[in-house]
Design brief:
Length: about 475
């Protein structure tokens, strides 16, 4: 079966939460509709849990922690291996869920959203074979131990990908978890809980509580028995979670907003890097915190860049995400669609040059949350579209007159999550990359690396995900003096 709604309905999952190894009915009756953004129709209802369900899940996770944290790394790796296998076996079911809940084109869900999510599980599994949980420094032992119960708060834009990026390393470290996915895109999370159960995850090690940020998110952040919160979301949400967590002095890892630059150096091959840059900015319809939505280009080559960008956008196909030929689907929810339309209008009002797209839906699409991929040029660094995170298919092209000015523009933001640099002189590309204040920099469009740590400088957050650093985020460090004598 590839119909996620039918599957979850027949299994009785939609109105329940997963806690202590079983599917359970919440105490309350509050529900939330799941909207298919391509049709704007409510396709399902999920249970909205509250503090009572959070208490149940945290208690289960706390009870399960001592035994799970003492398991051998090979045992934890075996569980992650089973989970990885089940996710890949159900790729079609997950892909259709992502298309239904957040508008991802079915081809993109198959090729990126699901397999990249599975890669996080594979990396966490493989790290366990070599990670030094105990090492020697003179006569002192350095022990790396699981931090405890972790509350994991994930967003709506990469639902499954962000779940595995947190659950994989947390379980690998020996932590137990309570997952709160976005209530706007909860279907893939419910399917993932099924996978965890069928993989034989011990009771209490993994728990899922659907609900809103102000209720479930706050309950996790303030709970004295939760040792760590990992949140991916807006900078505003990250600040609220950190404030709520402060009285209990728990660790808070935040992967937040971004306004990433794509710095095109004067010697760059424009025919290659501009189409790649536009496509990267519009990947997932720009609904990625690290999307390189500020393209910095030499002023003398601005006309060439505009033509290449315009031609690239002309090749996009926006429409029904169930159709294989569509490159871009629908914006994930109404609030985000409205935000994108507002920012496009602001860009026009600010006097930026509209190269492609504009406000409204693409021609021929009267319903559905479909936005026009939009490119602005001659953008000044003080414009709102150059400073504010839009989180949609809107690219701002900013001209510069020197490489030094370009670096200054790249760093002229409150964010510091990602960046891109393009050029043919590799030494210059490397030197520029070292000057950019961001947690991850891509040079000349390299392949994605699931082992590369990911996280932000400045208001893009703190902590790291992916690879070894992502695993270390869930560990405490203990020094045992005199261990070796």
């Amino acid at each position: 079966m590839t119909d996620p709604i039918r599957h979850l309905t027949e299994a009785g999952r939609l109105g329940r939460f997963y806690g202590d190894g079983a599917w359970r009915d919440p105490a309350g009756s509050e529900r939330a509709g799941v909207v298919n953004p391509a049709t704007e129709a409510v396709i399902a209802e999920i249970a909205l849990c509250g503090r009572q369900e959070v208490e149940h899940a945290v208690t289960a996770a706390r009870r399960a922690f001592p035994a799970w944290s003492r398991t051998a790394p090979a045992e934890r790796a075996a569980l992650l291996d089973r989970v990885h296998g089940l996710v890949m076996e159900r790729l079609e079911l997950f892909a259709h869920a992502l298309t239904a809940e957040m508008g991802a084109p079915i081809s993109y869900a198959r090729q990126a959203q699901v397999p990249l999510a599975a890669a996080h599980l594979r990396v966490a599994r493989d790290l366990l074979a070599t990670f030094p949980f105990l090492s020697q420094r003179g006569t002192t032992a350095i022990a790396r131990e699981a931090i405890g119960v972790c509350g994991l708060i994930t967003p709506w834009n990469w639902p499954l990908y962000q779940i595995t990026a947190k659950v994989g390393p947390a379980l690998a470290a020996g932590c137990t978890v309570v997952l709160k996915p976005s209530e706007l895109s909860p279907l893939s999370a419910l399917l993932f809980a099924e996978v965890m159960h069928e993989a034989g995850c011990p009771a209490g090690v993994f728990n899922l509580v659907n609900g809103t940020g102000p209720v479930v998110g706050e309950a996790l952040a303030t709970h004295p028995e939760v040792d760590m919160i990992s949140i991916t979301g807006s900078t505003r949400a990250g600040v609220l979670v950190a404030q709520a967590a402060a009285p209990t002095v728990k660790r808070v890892a935040q992967e937040l907003g971004g306004k990433s630059p794509n710095l095109v150096l004067p010697d760059a091959d424009l025919a290659r890097c501009i189409p790649l840059g536009v496509a990267s900015a519009m990947r997932n319809l720009g609904q990625s915190c690290s999307a390189p939505t500020r393209m910095l280009v030499p002023r003398a080559r601005l006309a060439e860049v505009e033509a290449l960008a315009r031609n690239t956008v002309a090749g996009f196909r926006v429409g029904d995400p169930q159709r294989e030929e569509m490159t871009h689907g629908a914006i994930a929810n109404q609030a985000q669609f409205d935000r994108i339309q507002q920012m496009i209008r602001i860009g026009i009002e600010e006097g930026a040059t509209l190269v492609a797209g504009g406000p409204g839906r693409p021609e021929g699409l009267a319903t559905g949350l479909f936005a026009r991929p939009t490119v602005f040029s001659a953008v000044r660094r003080d414009m709102a579209i150059a400073q504010e995170e839009i989180f949609g298919p809107v690219l701002a092209i900013l001209p510069y007159d020197s490489v030094e000015e370009a670096v200054a523009i790249a760093n002229d933001t409150i964010y510091g999550l990602g960046a891109h640099v393009h050029g043919t002189d590799l030494e210059q590309v490397r030197a520029v990359a070292r000057q950019i204040r961001a947690g991850q920099v891509h040079l000349n469009a390299p392949d994605w690396d699931p082992h590369a740590p990911f996280g932000g400088y400045k208001r893009s957050g703190n902590g790291r995900e992916y690879g070894r650093e992502g695993l270390e985020e869930y560990l405490e460090t203990k020094a045992i003096l005199g261990f070796y004598q």
